Structures are given as structure tokens and as C-alpha cells.
Amino acid sequence: MDPQYSAQDIVRCDLCETPVPPMSCDICHINLCIACVGVHLSDDSREHKVVPFHKRGSTINYPKCQKHPPKTCEVHCKHCDIPICASCVSSGDHDQHKKIDILTILTSKKELIKKDLQELKELIRPKFQQAASEIPAQKAGVKQHSLKLTTDLNKQGEALHKEINSLIQRKQSEIEAMDEQHLAAISTQEDVINKALHEIKQVILDLQKLLDLDDVCLVSEYTSRNEEFRSLPAQLEVTLPTFSPQEINREQLYQQLGSLSQLFITYPLTDEAARTTEEHGGLKKTPGTVSSPPARPLSDNPRILTDIPTGYSYLFKVSCLSDEEIWTSGNNKIMKLYNLKGELLKSVQTKSGNAPRDIAVTRSGGLVYTDWYDRSINLVSGTQIQTLITLQGWRPRHLCSTSTGDLLVTMYSNDDKQTKVVRYSGSTEKQSIQWDDQGNSLYSPFGSKYLSENRNLDICVSDFGVRAVVVVSAAGKLRFRYTGPPSTPQESFGPRGITTDSQGNILTTDYNNDRIHIINQDGHFLRFIHNCGLQLPWGLCVDSRDNLFVAERDTGKVKKLVYYQ
């Protein structure tokens, strides 16, 4: 018996639950004890046919005709795909249609049901059961990985306070860990080879025995396995780590000590595993594929490619319309579109005549801006300006467009005591992000709060009020706060503009120190962009090639930089 239904091993009367009923109604499909037969037959609202239990299912229950009740249908019209009765046939409505005995339909459907039942029991259900059984381990793995990341983060914070000897020891530990990983991979390969070698030795012994025997039966049954052993198991492909020393600077001691490239080990699929994957409809894995590609290396010497004067006495924001065109805004009511040659392509005046607090380019190429004074969020399309949202009790300040086309807006309450991030789809509010899990405000109630969405859908806010970058998940859960590298006093960090690139790195201007911080998507400081001629950097954006555009507040220039190798 199927263990899924082991609780139903005793058949009972469907009316009184008496065990092992001797009768069954073939029309109503219920089991009956002798005492309940009369009770069941007394219901004359429908037909009944009571038969011995062992003959249940022998009566064909023909469907009732919907057009000529209470007649039954013994024929199926293939053209109309409906059961029909004798009156339907004689009416002439189906004269030119092909008709099939309804029992033929019953037989074919039952065959289909049998096949489906077999597939569900033998293939589909076990597959889902296997998948379900793996879920707890996957959940546990997420927690373990999260704990590992947290441990690494804490160790990183502690290590950044140490002197050169501790940093060298840390690098040595990383090398040893890679050695262990590499040796473990080699040991795995060794086990595969030793297993094959053991089999080969056994085959040799067996063949030597056969040669010593004159048993025709045994010898005639021999099948060669040499083809199986002619090729060595697939060999590991290893990219060995390299060490790149740099000039030591105490402020960035750990970063300038040198970078250790990652160790990539490829585990190729055997031919049999590849065939099995394809036969079960899975994706074919290509031998040599690495699960995640190495990150693009950052440049040790970022350089400015282009200077674009904009004419603003104070320039605050830049936003890429394309790789060749940028929108800019400053301390007046005009928003300007420039190409990379510095040519003015278009000027747009705000609807109210107020200076915009922020601008952003939408996924469809429109320009949106916030108006602090009339509490509005507006869309520029061609020569037309449409007010999308007018707030009550709150004022909009900064905004960005997301990968899904939503708008994220930072806003402040009228009394300047609360700040939040709100997600809009068109003019409809979809989400409000204001509090952490302990009920504390995520953001300070003062200072600028530019924002950007990362490739993992995190929402990254540069909170100048508390001199921090505050990053929350798409669900609004706090992930981390970045307040600058440990070697730099927090009070000197002045985050203003913020953007994210294709690698998931977060870039924010440090207005107080004429530099830009680059951190990864988990909050680890990577390096500064500085000593390349930046002056009071404010707004930021990147194009599709990860070229960086920096708006300098006092010079009124947009500078295009390259910061990847």
C-alpha cells in the first residue's frame, strides 16, 4: 500500500462508518453497510444502483444531457467537444460532425489518468519531496553564510586598527586559507584518481585469473573496460593568486599593502553527470564555468577625462541621460542638458520658478525633479512639465529612479523632526521606509540625503546629518551604516552625492575632503578617489560603462573620471 494513504487501509460505510461494508452505490460512488442501503435508496431525488462491493465501478455513469434532460449521453461530438444524447443526434445539429462512442472517450481518459497518476507518484512527487527536504539545509546555509560575513566584517574592522605586522599576518592567513582550499581540491582529485587506480588494479587481477583458466564460459563472457580507463579524470583548472605590493601609506595601510587576487577552482562535470542533467531537462553546465566572475579591478590612479563647464555659480547635481549626454542642476531655476563636448543642448525652467532640489533621469529617458517650496515632484517630457505628486505635511528633497521604473524620494516632515524614504510607482505610494526593527529612525531629521539604488536592490542614502551612508534592503531592513574607514575620524566624513555602479560598489562624495569613497555592497571600504584634481565634489552619477561624472559645487564643472583599470 502507498505509505501516503496508509491511514485509509480500512474501508468503512460512508453513512455510519461501519467497517467493511458489503455494498456500494455505483451511481453515487459511496460504500454502504446492509443497514444503510434502505436509507440511501429512500433518497429519490436521484437515481441509485446498489451493487455488491466487489462489483463497484461496473456501472457506467453516463453524463446527463444539458440540452435534453433527463436523457443521458452515450455519444461524444468530436467537432463540438461535448457529450450528446439521442435527441441531439436526431435534431440534425451534429449531422456533419464526427461522433465517437462515449466509452471510447472514457477509455482514453482513463489511460491518460493512469499515466498521469504514475508520473505523479513515481517522478513528480519524489522530485518535489527531494526539493522540500533540501530547503531546511538551504535556510541553515543562509544563516551560516550570514554569520561568516558578519565575522569577517568584525575581523576587518579590528584589523584596520592594527599596524603593519598584524596586516602582514592577516595576509598570510588569507594565503594559508587559500592553500588549504587548494590542497583540499587537489585531495579530492587525488581521491578520484586513487579510486580509479584501485579499480584498474582489480581489473588486472581479474584478467590474470582469466588467463590462467580454461573455462570457456567465463572467458567468453569477458567484456573489455579499457576504454573506460583510457582517459584521466577531468583535471582541475586553477588560477593561482598573485601578490601586488604597493607603496605604504599609513592612512590606507591595509589597502596599500597589496591586493591578493582570488583563487578560482573549476570543478568540471563528468560526461555521465552532464548527460543526466540534460536528460532530466536541466541546464547543461559547461565544464570550466566559474560560479561568479572576478570583479573588475579598481585603478590605482583614477584620472579625469573631460571637464564640462556648466555656468552655475553653485552646481549640485548631475544625472546621465546617456553615455554622451548629462542633465545638470544648480542654484537657479534652469536645468541644463550638455553633451561631452560641453555644448548646451537644452535648457528647461522649473514650473514654479524655484530652483530644483534634485534631478534624476527615468528609465524611459524623462527628467524628474523635486520642488522643495511647493512640495511637488515633477516630470519633464519634451517641452511639457507634469506635476506627478504634491505632498501634504512633507517636503520632497532628493530622488532617484530605480531599475523597475519606480521613484525613490527622501522627504522631510513640515516640523523638520522626521525623515523617510518613499517609493512611488507613477503617483502611487508603494512603500515608506522610516524606522528600524527597534523603532528608531533610520535617518537623521536634518542635512541632505541623496540616494541611489544598488544592483542588488538595496537603497543607499548619504545622510549628511549623521555623516554616514545608510543602506537598507529593498524591504526596508537596515543592512549597514558606513561612516568612513577606521583610520579616518568620523567627524571629518562629509557624504553628499551618491551613486552605484555595475559591480555593486557604492560611491559617495566626501565634500569636506575633496575625495570620493568607494565601498562595496556589503559596506567594506575599498579605496578613495583623490589626488586627481577634484574640488568640492558634490553630485555623482555613472554611465553604462562605469565612467564617473562628478559635479563640483564651486567651480560649476562636471568632471568625467575613469576609476576602473
Overview of this structure, please?
This protein has 565 residues and is α+β, with helices and mostly antiparallel strands. It folds into 3 domains: 10-66, no CATH class; 157-292, no CATH class; 298-564, 7 Propeller (Methylamine Dehydrogenase, Chain H), CATH 2.130.10.10. It has a 4-stranded antiparallel sheet, with no helix packed on it. The chain has a 4-stranded antiparallel sheet with strand order 12-13-14-15, with no helix packed on it. A 4-stranded antiparallel sheet has the order 16-17-18-19, with no helix packed on it. β4 (75-77) and β5 (82-84) form a beta hairpin. The radius of gyration is 37 Å and the shape is extended. Mean pLDDT is 84; it is low at 1-8 and 253-294.
Helix content: 25-40%
Domain count: the total is: 3
- Per CATH, what is the topology of the largest domain? Methylamine Dehydrogenase, Chain H
Number of helices: 8
- Secondary structure class reads alpha+beta
- Rg over CA atoms, rounded to whole Å, is 37 Å
Global mean pLDDT: 84
Low-confidence region ranges: 1-8, 253-294
CATH architecture of the largest domain: 7 Propeller
The largest beta-sheet arranges its strands as: 11-34-33-32
Top-tier CATH class of the largest domain:
Mainly Beta
Kindly, what is the distance between the CA atoms of the first and last residues, rounded to a whole number of angstroms? 66 Å
Q: How many DSSP-defined strands? A: 34
Characterize the overall form: extended
The CATH superfamily of the largest domain is known as YVTN repeat-like/Quinoprotein amine dehydrogenase
Largest sheet: 4 strands, antiparallel
